[in-house]
Amino acid sequence: MKKSILFIALALAFASCGNTYEEWAAPQGNEQEAAKTVNMTLAEAPAINFATLNTDSVQLFAPTMKVEDPATNVYTVTLFNADKRKSKQIKAYADGKVKASELEEAFIDLWGRRPQQRDVALHVEAFTTVNGMSIRNEGNTTAKITPDSPVLEDHYYYMGTNNAWSKTDKSLELQNGGGDLYDDPVISIIIPSAKNADNTIAAENTFKIIPQSAYDRGTATFFDGNIIGVAANGAEGMSGSFVVGKNDEVANAFKINQTAHPGKYYKIELNLLEKTYNITAMNDPELFLTGSNYGWGGTWVPLVPVHSTTDTFWKIIYLHANEEIKFAPQAGWSNDFGSQATINDQAGAGITDNGGNIKVANAGWYLLVVVNGSARKVSFLWPEVYLMGSTAPVNNWTIDSHNAFTIPATDNGEFISPAIAANGELRMCIKLDTYDWWKTEFMVTTGGRLSYRGKGGDQSRVNVLTGQKVHINFTNGTGSYQ
Q1: For residue 54, what is the enclosing H or E element?
Q2: How far apart are the first and last CA of the chain?
Q3: DSSP assignment, residue 145?
Q4: CB 284 within 8 A of CB 265
Q5: Is 151 within the bounds of a domain?
């Protein structure tokens, strides 16, 4: 153990003038007391499981101090994550116990909420006060810690009116931002309103959320456990708490009253750790793209709304030579349009009309800007992406060429930013003349997915480091910080 002894000395007073001084009195003092020796040993405490812990404090480590005279001890403990690149420091009592709440908060920040036991490296500093002296010791040990979190599965699916309660259909999966569910526990899906056989809006949409384990069990025991629903049968709440358990005995169906809460679409959100849900009726205008490379309606690609507008949308997309596209205000054939709109080709795409479809002659990356108002307009622009603000090479809140991303040559290539100039919160956007930059803002989540602000509020920030670059794959909807 390393030790250091701090002594308190009496300062001598002197009077001086110019380069000489006069001694007022001869120095006086008592004989120095012999240094004390304090030895510390550390032992591992019993494993900690926050799921069963019911006390305010908990034994984190077991210290033994060997000292000749009566003494008092205080401890500071540093906890580390797996690679020891991140740490948290907390105080400990004389017996090696710590506040349970402080330990849990530090552990979750370092290791996350996944409910598995972790071997946590500890560095302990002890300060022993004995006979007026303060003696420092330090040492290392480990602690076994498990957080209090429910067991989550990797995949959850909508099952209900919209897919006729199919036990085999897994097309309606709820997803988070792309990272670990224990770090990002909010999963969501946007579904169209339920329809009657004659395509009119149904009175209600009932559903449950099904984990992957139900499909693994098979149809005979499909509903035997881990089904997500509500406690009260027939409850029509658009938000509240959910329960997990066996079908109907515990987990009853969610119910959306589509008459009381009319919507073109419904967004279903669940917080898997807090066991809460929220359902939002959505009626904002939308716009989708399909075409020859998407099976002519087999896939509908959503465009991003420009903030504070009702009819303007954008999309950065790679278009192949001779590719044809059309647009529609929903993910289906109705009120669709193509070359009927006014075409504005500023990027040299070589646009022609082919039976009402927009045909592209020249392959490459484009920024599509579509106005779906009383007058429809489709613009083909250069796909310019920029860093903004304090982390950009030029700290500016207006478009600056020094902050521009490179544009790839291939359909699966990455847009790459210049190097981050300073640690901080990343902001970025596309260039769209006449609009403030934040109206086309987007980000890459910590889970590696593109997240567009659209018409929403400020997005959760991501902190970046000096020298990193942002890599964006618009084709896959992914990104990274490298």
Answers
A1: none
A2: 40
A3: E
A4: no
A5: no
DSSP 424-453: EE-EEEE--TTS-GGGGEEEE-TTSBEEE-
Residue 6 has pLDDT above 50, yes or no: no
Residue 167 CB neighbour total at 10 angstroms = 14
Last residue of one domain, picked from the residues 226, 254, 282 = 282
The structure tokens 């669940």 sit at 270
Gap between the Cα atoms of 77 and 110, Å rounded: 14
Residues 11 and 141 in one domain: yes
Q: Let me know whether 409 and 368 are in one domain.
A: no
23 plus 118 within the same structural domain:
yes
Give dist(CA 258, CA 162) in Å, integer.
13
Q: Are residues 10 and 142 in the same domain?
A: yes
| Cα separation, 59 vs 46, whole angstroms | 7
Q: Which residue has the tokens 């991501």?
A: 462
Q: In this structure, what are the phi and psi dihedrals at residue 355, rounded to the nearest 5 degrees?
A: 65, 35
Which residues constitute the domain of residue 220? 156-282
What is the tens place of the pLDDT at every residue in 49-102?
999 999 999 999 999 988 878 888 999 999 999 999 999 999 999 899 999 999
> Could you tell me if 119 and 107 are in contact, meaning their C-beta atoms sit under 8 angstroms apart?
no
3-state SS track over 349-377: CCEEEECCEEEECCCEEEEEEEEECCCEE
Place of tokens 């004989």: 31
Give percent of the chain with pLDDT exceeding 70: 92
* Cα–Cα distance for residue pair 430/417, rounded to 1 Å: 12
Give the model confidence (pLDDT) of 433-467 as tens digits: 999 999 999 999 988 999 999 988 888 889 999 99
Long-range contacts from 232-235, C-beta under 8 angstroms, 24+ separation: none
Question: Tokens 């530090």 sit at which residue?
Answer: 106
- Domain-ending residue, one of 216, 250, 282: 282
Residue 446 lies in a domain: yes
Q: What is the dihedral of CA 396, 400, 403, 409, to 10 degrees?
A: 160
CATH code of 457's domain: 2.60.40.3610
**Contact indicator for 195, 264 with CB cutoff of 8 Å:** no
Residues 91 and 111 in one domain: yes
Instruction: Return d(Cα 149, Cα 146) in angstroms, integer.
Output: 9
Per the structure, the count of domains in the chain is: 4
Cβ 186 vs Cβ 176: under 8 Å? yes
Same domain, 191 and 323: no
Long-range contacts of 237-240 (CB under 8 A, 24+ apart): 238/278, 238/279, 238/280, 238/281, 239/276, 239/277, 239/278, 239/279, 240/276, 240/277
Q: Let me know whether 28 and 133 are in one domain.
A: yes
- Tell me, yes or no, whether 132 and 197 share the same domain: no
* Residue 55 to residue 205: CA distance in whole angstroms: 44
CATH code for position 211: 2.60.40.3620
Q: What is the amino acid identity at position 234?
A: G
Helix (H, G, I), strand (E, B) or coil at 61: strand
